[in-house]
Write a structure and sequence with these properties.
38% of the residues lie in helices and 21% in strands. With 307 residues, it is an alpha/beta fold. It has a single domain (33-43, 53-306), classed as Protocatechuate 4,5-dioxygenase, Chain B. The strands form two sheets. Strands 4, 5, 6, 9, 10, 11, 12, 13 and 14 form a nine-stranded mixed sheet that branches. A hairpin with a 2-residue loop joins β7 and β8.
Length: 307
Amino acid sequence: MILLRNRDSYINEGGSKMQTRKPVAAGRFYPGSQDACLAELAECLGERSLPANLPETIIAGIVPHAGWAYSGALAALVFAAVKKQNKSVDTFVIFGAAHRYYGEPAVYDKGAWQTPLGEITIDEELARDVLQSGSGISELRAHSVEINSIEVQIPFIQHLFADAKILPILTPPAQISVQLGDSLGAIAKESGKKIVFIGSTDLTHYGPGYGFTPKGDSEKGIEWAHKVNDAEFINFVLQMQPDKILDTAERNYNACGAGAAAAAVAAAKQLGKNKGILLAHTNSNTIIAQKMGSGSSESVGYAAIVF
């Protein structure tokens, strides 16, 4: 019986805490009720088809993290590809973008996360191994500073992988995130578990509202953001060059979660992958035009990639 609740934990009759991270993006970035969440998941999963040239097994992916109405179909592609190619997954390590967090990588290491679909358990054993690895990671159990980059992925996992656990990690755009990915890849090799690494990032945020208009405030600027600026970041991801992923993001502002992408790529390299496969690349301006008949003066890029 639960006697007392605070923001991130419950206290049971025996007085022990059962830490649960409550949803903060539900009702904003994705539906807030179970039925609506399941309906939109089905819509996202049915919107695009998987290509035929998927890797034999998939051990990592790059997903966007905007509202599902914009980027949910691309995130769905990655998780559907993992489901198709892998019989099961024990744990998804989700590297999140550090939008509002400035510091070393931080892991949510105990308890569970909650979404409208219920709770999903943290892989505490893997968290303990990571914390003991000397890879410069700390505990940040509340993860209250990051709203959406991790949470919007979790319902896809709950829906498609009922028995899977997660390990959420905030990853800053710094070399330490590459080292963390290397370390986690090595841990995964020895663990005996089927672990899939997810790097959560959107691409170029273009337009006056984002304070980034190097090619002007026009459709040509948005086209440049998509075809040139996004493409450079995607190319380094596909080539699996984590150092260049960090460098281009710092110079060209073409990813908000460069550390997350670099960590996922580094982990995949440790596990023997040597290239990525681009499943889809689009942007919010294109999606708005498709759904509403007219575009916008601003745009955010999205890519779905698997390894």
